[in-house]
Each structure stands twice: as structure tokens, then as C-alpha cells.
Amino acid sequence: MTSRRRVVVLFGGRSAEHEISCISARAVIDALDRERNEVIPVGITKEGRWRLQAAPPAFPSEAGRMPEVTDGSGADVELAGDPGSRALVSADGSRAPIDVVFPVLHGPFGEDGAVQGFLELAGVPYVGAGVLGSSLGMDKAVQKALWSASGLPVVPHEVVHEPEWAEDLEGVSARVQALGYPVFAKPATLGSSVGISKVHGEGELDAAMAEAFRYARKAIIEKSIEGAREIECGILGNDDPVASMCGEIVPRGHEFYDYEAKYLDEDGAELLIPAPISQDLQERIQRLAVASFRTIGCAGMARVDLFLRGEDELYLNEINTIPGFTSISMYPKLWEASGLTYSDLVERLLELAVERHATEAGRSTRARELEG
Fold first, then answer.
1. Which of 87, 172, 311, 357 keeps 20 to 30 A from 348, CA to CA?
2. What is the rounded CA–CA span in Å between residue 297 and residue 295?
3. CB 28 within 8 A of CB 40
4. Whole-angstrom distance, CA of residue 19 vs CA of residue 167
5. For the chain, what is the largest distance between any 2 Cα atoms, rounded to a whole number of angstroms?
6. How confident is the model at residue 1 (pLDDT cuts 50, 70, 90)?
7. For 251-276, what is each residue's pLDDT tens digit?
8. Phi, psi of 61 (to 5 degrees)
9. Rounded to whole angstroms, how far apart are CA atoms 181 and 173?
10. HSE-up of residue 198 (Cα within 13 Å, Cβ side)
11. CA gap 20, 329 in Å, rounded
12. Mind giving me the DSSP string for 309-347?
């Protein structure tokens, strides 16, 4: 009998999306097939310490708060640094072998290439995009520049660095004025709608920029596409990615799909799957989503968010290389509606991780042989 695959599910982390990561990880762990996989939950505290867990913290917590990984929640562990060893090392020096890591980490220090680079150095297969794809997927400013250079449609926007805002307030305000209010101000390197504000006029801009700069040194100011519908599409694969059917998000009682609507208000939005659009339009969106995925060198998975104005005017909004995996998240729901259950989706992602690692390892071996 083949032994089970030992899967480290990595969650929590140092970003402002720590709590959402915990919720996503619980859903992933619940979906893993125990006959095929042995699950090893590892939580990262907000200070960056790795803790071996029995399970992700419950949501809501006993105190009624969002869940988080705390210092007292488990024993210290670390990833063995010697390439190819594929092991977790405990404080007493004991080693536990692992096969693959599923990083369910949202935001900086988890979704931006930092953890991915660490896993590459350690020679451990992992789910999702590599270092470059993760970095580009996290940085909304750079991804939009690449999409624009590739001829893909993006929302009119301005990129503002924190020192620039402090030193040239009038100049930045003029650039925003040229976009035309209302606009959205958001951190360039964060997700889950953290730090986002809708700005209806110049009098609201200062507070919105202060909020964005709480989370990043670079902000994006985007023109609001008034009346647009928010369409999302899931991507799955490595060299030959495929797109799910499309879904639509309709905010309820919220001006836009903000953090509260996503995670705290059970009636904050309606998810329409499939999106009420024509088959031709869905296929066009799917092609655009795959093109955006390939342009940034993504792998494994991503959720692509777009705006649809009128009958056929499309804009890429952003790509999420580690999309939400909570029970209400769009990515797994889109694939379930496309014929892939949550459990099968998670299993396929693990397979893609192992396949990509084997391909890259083989390429490295051939390169060393040629050099020798």
C-alpha cells in the first residue's frame, strides 16, 4: 500500500490578512482526503514564528474575535534548510519528513514570493505560483504595467509612492483630478480589500491615502468604473492553464465589495454562479483571464477579477495567486460549479505542485550535467 503524502498546510503569517488565512486553511484541511494525505498544520504567528498546530484556530474564536495563530498555540518548528531534506525540525532537533507544502497565506510575507523563495531554496514542492509569479501577482502596480504592455485592458490608474504623496501633494492631487472622481485608493501590495477606500471627492483623498499607506509604501489610485459589474474567473494549471466558468459578485448594503462585505456580513454580497452573461462573453473573459495569468508567469492557481461595463467593455482589475479558500470564497465555488469538487480541486493543486517541482528539478539536473 502506497504511503500517504505528507502535506504541510501553512497559514497565518505576518500580513494584515492573517485572520483570513486561518479561515481559508481550515477549509483546505477539512477538504484534504485523509486516505491520500497526512495533514500537518503549521501556523505562523504575526511575529513570524512557525508553530505546529493540531488544527487552525476556530472561527469565530472563543472570545468572538477573528482567529489568529498565537505564541502558545503549538510547538516551535522550522523548515530544514538543507536542500532536498524536506523535513520540519522541532526544537529538540527531531525531524519529520514532508512531501509538499500548501501555503494558504494571503498578503505580504506569504503571497508575494517570500515564502516561495524560502521553499525553493529548501527544495520543497509547494502549491501555487513561483517566486516571480507570486511577486507580480502581489504588486498591483507592476502587474497592471505588464498587462498594459501586453495589450490587455486595465482600469485607468495612478501609482503613488508614500514619499511622493508627502512631498508633492498638489501634483498627486492633480493627477487624481485628471482621472476623475470617484476613485478607489488601495495599497498596491495587499488583498482582501484591506486598506481600500472609495473617494468621492478631493476632500476625502487625504484620509484614503493615509489608510492605504498604513499597509504599504506604494498605493494605487484607480478610476471607479461606475455601473460596472464585478466578474471573477478561476484559473488552474501550469503550462496549459484552464479557466473555470465565470461568477459575479453583487454587493448588498455596501457601496463596494469591501472587507466587511467579504468576511463579516453574512448578507454583504450575493454570489451569482454562473454569472448571467452570454456564452460568447464568458469565453472572451476566460481567454482574457488565462492571458493575464500567463503574462505574469503564474502557475498552479489564481483568481482573476474583472469589471464589465455595459454589454462587452472589459477591464482587468487584479489577479490573486493565493485566492481565498473559505467556505464562501469564489475560487472553490467557481470550480465546483465547473465540475470539480473542493476535495478534487485541492488534490489537483497538490499534483500540479509536485509536477512543477519535478520538471524544474529535472531541468536543474540537466543543466548541471551539461556544465560538468
1. 87
2. 6
3. no
4. 35
5. 69
6. very low
7. 775 455 544 444 544 565 788 999 99
8. -70, 175
9. 11
10. 11
11. 11
12. ETTTEEEEEEEESS---STT-HHHHHHHHTT--HHHHHH
pLDDT at res. 371: 65
Indicate whether 119 pLDDT > 80: yes
The Cα–Cα gap between 159 and 20 comes to 26
Query: What sign for the dihedral angle of Cα 326, 52, 360, 14?
Result: positive
Domains and CATH numbers, the chain: 5-126 (3.40.50.20), 156-223 (3.30.1490.20), 226-340 (3.30.470.20)
DSSP conformational letter for 204? G
| Structure confidence by residue, pLDDT tens digits, 29-69 | 999 999 999 999 999 999 999 999 987 777 665 555 778 89
Report how far residue 34's alpha carbon sits from residue 346's, in angstroms, rounded to the nearest whole number: 12
Per-residue model confidence (pLDDT) at position 81: 82
pLDDT score, position 107: 83
DSSP annotation of 71? G
Q: How far apart are the first and last CA of the chain?
A: 39
Q: b or e along 78-104 (b: 16 or more beta carbons within 10 Å of the residue's beta carbon)?
A: ebbeeeeebbbbeeeeeeeebbbbbbb
- CA atoms of 83 and 132, how far apart (whole Å): 20
For the annotated catalytic residues, the residue numbers are: 17, 192, 263, 303, 305, 318, 320, 324
Q: Which residue has the cell 508627502?
A: 166
C-alpha span between 59 and 52 (Å, rounded): 19
